[in-house]
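Chapter summary example.
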Amino acid sequence: MRGIISILLLCLLITSNSFATIKLSKGIIRYTPVEDKRVVYGKIDCKGSIYASKFLKIWMREFKSIYPNIKSSFDFQGYEQGINALINGSANIATTSRKIRVEELKLFKEQKGYKPIEVKVALDALAIYVNRLNKVEKITLGELDAIFSTTLNRGYSQNIVSWKSLGGSDEKINIYLLDRTTGTRSYFQDRVMLDGEFKIDSVTEDGYTTISEITDRVADDPNGICFGSVGAKNFGVKALSLAKQKHFPSYRPSPQNIKNGKYPLTRFIYLYLDVPPDKQIPIFLYEFCKFVLSRDGQDGVLRVGGLPLNPKQIGIELSKIKGE
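The structure predicted for these 324 residues follows.
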């Protein structure tokens, strides 16, 4: 009987994972390599987002298989590391899971005299995860702010500390947080808490660096809650539907709702490049960006559980770069 139940649960997990059925748009074209591959050489130094590293690793492996003279160096310790490395010149690509901050952009411009090139390379969303046995199915941005913050910038009169306030059990909400160096945590703080402060004293556990680690803990805790990139492969948790405000429609973080922008916490994955405005992008960086934004590169996004850009978005991003 236990074996039958396990099989049924596995089947439910597979059929409910709508991300597994996503296909690339027919309008995305394949990458055409440079005829003389010897002219594409150089070293790609990439630092930044831990989450985005899964995309960069597969892109670089396949790009280097096309151009054997490409060298690479990776170090993924968080979005701040990537932006700082771009500013101090120890990286020529910074990866982030959120848009560069105004103050970071100002610092870069003060140091360099120009802005970095921003290229969106994949679509993503931040999901709110609770234990699968939790009766709560939906939540608002204001309620999230009241759960996670001390500042209550979205207007709640007091903190939410019990699931009963959300229509669940009369149990204390246990908060699990990603590490403060992650772009996902910074994005949540900006978009959900309106740059408020986390209620650190009430956090159950802090410092997780991957979505698998943090959802494993919530899967073991009936009263746990966390946030992280959409598409977590853990049957012990579920993603809540999310509404912008009370009485507004709530939306699940499904591929369709993310693509059409209805899900409130839709975001992009970014590459930031250090290229002076009076110079063209070196050919090796130009071809790398072209590969990432091609059918081949966006197929890699799908293979590691991400969401590809659509042809219109790709066209916009390609217009930002000009090769030698």
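To summarize the output: The first strand starts at residue 42 and ends at 48.
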